[in-house]
Prior knowledge:
- By secondary structure, the chain is mainly alpha-helical.
- It is built from 21 helices and 5 strands.
- It has helices spanning 3-28, 37-45, 62-71, 78-92, 94-102, 107-118, 121-127, 133-151, 160-172, 181-192, 198-222, 226-242, 255-272, 277-291, 303-322, 332-349, 355-379, 383-392, 405-411, 424-431, 443-451; strands at 398-402, 418-420, 438-442, 460-467, 478-484.
- Strands 2-1-3-5-4 form a 5-stranded mixed sheet.
Amino acid sequence: MNLEKLNRIIILGLSSLAVLYIFAVQLNSLNPFVASWDQVDFTLAMDRYDLRAMQPHFPGYPYFILGGMLLKFFVDYPNQALVLFNVLVYASSILPVYFLASKILSRTNAFLIAAAIYTASYPLIIVNQPMSEGAALAAFWWFFWSIAATESRPAGKWMLLPLILFSVLLGIRLSYIPMGIGLIYLLYRKWKKRELALGGVIKYVVLAGLFQLIWVAGLIVSEGGLSNFLELAFGFTGGHFQEWGGTSASNELSFWARLKAFLFTNILWWGIFSRTTVLMVLYIVIGIVIFLPASKRKVLKENSVYLGVLLLLAYAVWALFAQNIDKPRHILPLALLLVFLGLIVFFKKRAEMYASPLVVAVIIAQAIISSGYIQKQAVNEPAVYQLADYLEEQQEDFVLYTWEETRVLQYLEMSYPHKRIYTYRNFLHDQGLYKGKTVYLTNSVVDGFRSQGFDPDGKLEKVESFASGKIFDPVYHKIILYKWTP
Length: 486
């Protein structure tokens, strides 16, 4: 056996073990907690699907909920059924990533890229939560592959595959709608190569709409008609972009501050480096090597690379302006696309012996870090759970005012009174109704009052603080409980 073949066996063996190890850890450590407003929405939908009751919130994510329902017989809790669906579907994404990379690189290097994408630590944390991001990432990779596969084949039945998968993708998570530019790209390419006439293009546009109508029509029926559905749609959209969505329209950050947080904090530090120095160093080394002069520069001419860049740019604009900058999970497809495209360039420019071992080092590091995160996430109580338990033990009569935490407290069926408060003026009026009772507030409420121009300092007494992993919940990882002492 020559040295090159032995090296390939070792590389493939180590990366395969890392993939199998992560999959086993995920199955053995299904997250049992429901720790945020969105997670409660999805979990409650498993018992009663009702958009008006935000079970889940609009647009309903029907394919994701359906997947959870199919698996709820195999686990103890409905939220874990959603997590299990994420885990299984996300594992399948190794295949389309491998197929995409193998069109450009050797099979060994293609598998290394698929393993690097699958073992990425922050995406795996989100996969292990009862939200639709994990399944949506998997559906995206299949959609991406379907476009590349269809482009290389004559127009015909294959054209239906990306149309169907785009419907599945949006039925899992509507925020991936910018990825529809991939369909525009495909139809344009087919038209330019004269495989489709204008009539054929129009036909497939209509078919794409009909496939989307499958899940949209189901939601319309479930809401009792088109007018009710549109009322919900406009109400949700208005709130997302103007009140609570954290978009550029509702967030007070300047454009440059938002761009800095978007690129360096969300995409790099969270999405790719997973808040770890080890991965930051490894990926920076790969980045440096990519930009070093090559003895024989290889120009990328593959259409799938151009398609990947197009998808990345389209979603980047959407994520920057229309998604919540405080929630790094919204940039996951961008982070993974950057890794995918970056590693393709890396292997194309650096085919020497050290290229593969460096990527294997990333895979092993990610596997170790990811397994630790997944196991910790499954056993460490979120801060909001700690708050709930602490207040449950209090003997005096009290009322708790929260921002979004009350949604989780409702799910946990806490017996004490708790309510979400929106404005300082309403709070001053409402707390007067509880004379003789202790009035508690969380730090999120206090921060909200300050953002409205009211400073409650001097009227608060810090009682207790609760903390959990910031990477699991960037918004409510630390909760401070205050007593109102006017």
